[in-house]
Design goal:
Elements (H helix, E strand, L loop, with lengths): L2 H7 L17 H8 L7 H6 L3 E4 L2 E5 L5 E4 L2 H13 L8 H10 L2 E2 L3 H10 L2 H6 L22
Parallel strand pairs: 3-4
Antiparallel strand pairs: 1-2, 2-3
Length: about 150
């Protein structure tokens, strides 16, 4: 029977909702910043000094004193797409785009690695990238019969 028909008849319906969230890199830091008196390992305690929790959002303290909004992996993928192809669409290299994402105020730990992987899948970047100056075959080494002979 369907759920609406059970509700119309007045039969008791037991509902169990289980929601599993993906492992978010921000959760341990947010938990530590909300309650630092709990036991956490030293790595998390030291790492959390670079972050600030404000209005249920996690921010990283930037080198220049600005706060960078920490994104989860889904938000990061959307930010990469926006910066690479749409409004700012310059199809730049990884380090330049990391700088641009920092300039817009976004951060996540694997920002450079994720962006390099994204550009490897971009067809426009593959078409317009510089051609490698590699010879088509292996180099053949040879030795001269006498040293310093021209």
């Amino acid at each position: 029977m369907s759920l609406p028909s059970l509700l119309e008849r007045g039969d008791p319906v037991e509902v169990c909702a289980v929601e599993t969230l993906p492992d978010d890199w921000r959760m341990t830091i947010i938990r530590y910043l909300d309650n630092p008196s709990d036991k956490y390992n030293r790595r998390i305690r030291v790492h959390a000094t670079n972050y600030v929790s404000y209005q249920n959002e996690l921010y990283q303290k930037g080198d220049d004193g600005l706060l960078l909004l920490c994104l989860d992996l889904q938000e990061a993928a959307q930010a990469i797409t926006e910066v690479h192809e749409r409004i700012c669409g310059a199809h730049q290299s990884g380090r330049k785009m990391r700088w641009l994402l920092h300039r817009y105020g976004y951060f996540w730990p694997s920002i450079l690695k994720d962006y390099i992987e994204y550009t490897r899948g971009c067809m426009q970047c593959q078409i317009h990238e510089p051609i490698q100056k590699v010879p088509p075959e292996l180099l053949h080494l040879f030795t001269k019969p006498w040293p310093f002979r021209g």
